[in-house]
Amino acid sequence: MNNKIPPPVVTLICGIIIYFSRSLFPEITFQSINIISVLILLTGIGTLLTAASSFKKYQTTINPLQPDKATHLVVSGIFGISRNPMYLGMALILLAISVKFNLVGGIIITFTFISFITKFQIIPEEKAMMKLFADEFSHYKKQTRRWI
Fold first, then answer.
1. What ranges do the domains of the chain cover?
2. 23-34: per-residue pLDDT in tens?
């Protein structure tokens, strides 16, 4: 694995940066900012929990730092929409924080998070999945997008 920092920690760091860098970016507010932020947050949390539940259902590892320990390739449910719903959930949580506290800077940081996770977490995980599940994973990659 290229990434030794657990993705939830990366998410937390990005969320803190979004919040504390708000003075560096123009403030953008609108009437329904709280509602939109909460809806995105709930969608992100729901996506994360649904993905974690799928891993538990199939009794395979949820540890992103040890993808080679996977015992089952989960392709159903939310994994039929995104190959990486847990990371999608984390990105949505960051987007919710961005909408509420720092729209411009938050979007930049969220896209930086997506790029970082893709390069240092998802691509190495995909290599591990290819070794473990070869043809099944290759077919899954063709059917399901990496993010959404």
1. 32-61+70-143
2. 999 999 999 999
